[in-house]
Amino acid sequence: MQLQPTDALLVIDLQNDFCPGGSLAIAGGDEIVPTVNALAARFDHVILTQDWHPAGHISFASAHPGAEPYSAIDAPYGPQALWPDHCVQNTAGAAFHPALAVPHAELILRKGFRAEIDSYSAFLENDHFTPTGLAGYLRERGLRRLFLCGLAYDFCVRHSAIDGTALDFECLVIEDATRAVNLPGSVEATDQAFEEAGIQRIASTAIVTK
Ligand code: VGL
Ligand code: ZN
Questions:
Q1: Does ligand 1 lie within 6 Å of residue 152's CB atom?
Q2: pLDDT tens-digit map of 20-55
C-alpha cells in the first residue's frame, strides 16, 4: 500500500495499564509494540493518544459504591462501562509501554481527563458531543487518511475509527496491531460497526514487510 504525505498513524492508548501486569490488562497488549514501532517508522506523521484519568474518575467502578468492574452505569450522557482504576494521571500505569519507540510522534493527545465524563474516542468524549480538538488539529494540518492501531480494538480503537469516519477522515484499522478487551459480544459488535461504516481492516504487512 502506497502511503501519502497526508497520512497519519494514530496509536491508541498503548499504555502500561492496558498491557499484561497492568490494572486493565488486555491479553497480548504488549505483543503489538514491535509491529507498532515498525509501522510508525513508515509514517511521516504519528499521533499518540493517552488515556488520562483523574483519581475517582466516573469510569472507575471504585467510584460507585457496590459496583463491580466490567458492569455498567447510566451516566448523564448514556451508558458507561465501569473499569478497574486505570491510567491515572502521572502514574506508571498511565505511561506508554516502555518499548514503544516513536521519537517522531508529533502529538500526544490526552483524553478522559474530565472527572465526570469518559472518552473512548480520540475525537469525541462519551457524550458524543464534546470534541477533543483532534479533528481541528488534523484538518489544519491537512492530514486526511488515518491508520489506527493500539488498544483496545473494541473500545478506544473502535470509537476513534467510527467518529473519525463520521468526521470525514478516511480511517483504516491495522488489525494485527490491535488487541481487544473482549467483553461478551464486544469484538463482534466492533467488526459489524466497522463493516457498516465502510471502515477497512488491513494487515500491518500491507505497510511493513517483516
Ligand atoms: C480503554 C477502557 C477504558 C481503551 C480506555 O483504551 O480502549 N478501554 N479506558
Ligand atoms: Zn479509560
A1: yes
A2: 999 999 999 999 999 999 999 999 999 999 999 999
Write out the residue range of the structural domain in which residue 201 sits: 7-54+88-206
- Identify which of 10, 13, 190 to mutate to test ligand 1's pocket (most ligand atoms within 8 A of the CB): 13
Q: Which residues of 171-189 are buried (b: 16+ CB within 10 A; e: fewer)?
A: bbbbbebbbbbeeeebbee
Q: Does any domain span residue 43?
A: yes
Residue 35 located in a structural domain: yes
| Cβ(123) – ligand 1 distance below 6 Å | no
The Cα 156–Cα 151 span in angstroms is 7
By annotation, the residues acting in catalysis are 13, 111, 156
The structure's pTM equals: 0.98
pLDDT digits over 79-107, tens only?
A: 999 999 999 999 999 999 999 999 999 99
